[in-house]
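Table S2 (text version). Query chain:
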Amino acid sequence: MSQQGAALQNYNNELVKCIEDLCGKRDELQRQILIEEEDKHKIENEIRVASEKLAKINENLAKKITARTEFDRTISETEAAYMKILESSQTLLNVLKRESHSLRTKVDD
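Corresponding structure-token output:
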């Protein structure tokens, strides 16, 4: 019977050792989980901050593109009006030259 008791004691010792090993592995795994959860929360926060920053940049960019479009429209309209003024000036100059020439010929006659 003492042999059976010794065997039982050995099994018990091995079982306790296995349970302790499993608990140690579980504790290490729990430590790794906590570290990764902390990293995950940091990254999620960085993503949130970056998303907010991106939204502001997109909003500012849209405003600036709208303003640039208005500048382009104003420049285009101003250039078109200026071209009409130049054409009118050229026409006026031609009329003035023709009338001046006509008046000179009348005076010289």
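Notes on Table S2: The two ends are 157 Å apart (CA to CA). The chain has a mean pLDDT of 94.
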